């Protein structure tokens, strides 16, 4: 086990049994012209998470540890997109509409792809999900939980966007399924800094009711000290 200084107390990382989870680092959320921008958000606020995630990906890949990427996207016929989701609010582009990067949040369209800086490597899991949480109605026929269990994964290290929506939802789903969860503070971002701060506080409150949090620098230093690269 690798001891990591974290909030609200030390986290014991299990080498090889802790999957790095990269939530929804997609062009539609991060780049201008995508769904995030259509909601009126400053997409530049998400970019600071890219470098820390890239560093963590390099560390996990160098050790041969499991990596999982998610993409929030829908079928082309929108059969898996409830009207209550598509019709909510007044975005400039709704899910399924044609935008600068193809149809918004539709599987296979350019905007639904993960940004090039964090592109999945061969053999890494890529899980398409139609909702906020990564365990709900995913593209995996056996279900994500069953696949994680079969791979012997007991811990999930969360990164990605946005902190208070898909990251926190996925963490809560994982917590309910018995996983030990750690969110990397600077490897997750929100369009609203105050929402990120509130989400991190909620996750670690009451003795880590949902999970732990730590900065990427502390995690990377702990890995270098205790788990050399392959």
Describe this structure in words.
The protein is of the alpha/beta class and about 230 residues long. The protein has one domain (about 25-225): Rossmann fold. The protein contains eight helices and ten strands. The strands form three sheets. It has a six-stranded parallel β-sheet with strand order 7-4-3-8-9-10, sandwiched between helices. α7 (about 195-210) links the parallel β9 and β10. α3 packs parallel to α8 (about 215-225).
Task: Annotate the secondary structure layout.
Layout: E1 2-4, E2 11-13, E3 18-23, H1 27-30, H2 35-38, H3 50-63, E4 67-72, H4 83-86, E5 98-99, E6 102-103, E7 125-129, H5 144-150, E8 155-161, H6 163-176, E9 180-189, H7 193-208, E10 212-214, H8 216-226
Parallel strand pairs: 3-4, 3-8, 4-7, 8-9, 9-10
Antiparallel strand pairs: 1-2, 5-6
Helix pairs in contact: 3-8, 6-7
